[in-house]
Amino acid sequence: MRTMKVSLLAVFFFLSSVRPVAQVRETPELENLVRQDLRTVPGLSVFDNVTFKVYGLTVILEGQVTSPALKNAVEGTVRQINGVDGVNNFIELLPMTPSDQDVRMATLRAVYGDPNLTPDSLGPDPPIHIVVRNGNVMLEGRVRNIVERSDAYARAASVPGVAGVTNELQTAP
After folding, report:
1. CATH T-level topology, domain 22-93
2. Global pTM?
């Protein structure tokens, strides 16, 4: 019995002296860090759409990118954030066929060619992401109002070679 008490005391003192290497962050703080760091990933463009969710200290990556290198770069960037314990990468690789590339470029010119539609244009986090898969265009992001949302849809739908348009644009509150 005495040996068991001594062993328990030794374990208690050992555990109480151990300090965590990295301070654990609250989920909202971790979400802000992930959001900020994703803006710094080199090569991400208007044709890529990366989203994420944070569950505890695990980050779930979703969305679409145009190259395997980008998929890996996004995951690597998130893995290096202090406080992230795990990353699940469910980012989809988009086809890079010549016809999809043509649709991407033509849709970019149509949507971002309207100065009233996108005054902030193409910064590190563009307001409208143009995701093209087999001739189908999906518009993702956030615009100022319903008129901009409708205009973006109409411009994308008018592009030759577009098989269909899905408008997932959100309006600012």
Report:
1. Histidine-containing Protein; Chain: A; (3.30.1340)
2. 0.79
For residue range 41-62, list pLDDT tens digits in order. Answer: 999 999 999 999 999 999 999 9
Up-side HSE of residue 146: CA atoms within 13 Å toward CB? Answer: 0
Assigned CATH class of 98-171: alpha beta
Which residues of 45-163 form beta strands (DSSP E)?
Answer: 49-55, 58-65, 86-89, 92-93, 128-133, 136-143
Q: Return all residues near 43 (Cβ < 8 A) that are at least 6 apart.
A: 67, 69, 70, 73
Task: Give residue limits of the domains in the chain.
Answer: 22-93, 98-171
Question: What is the predicted pLDDT for the residue at 115?
Answer: 76
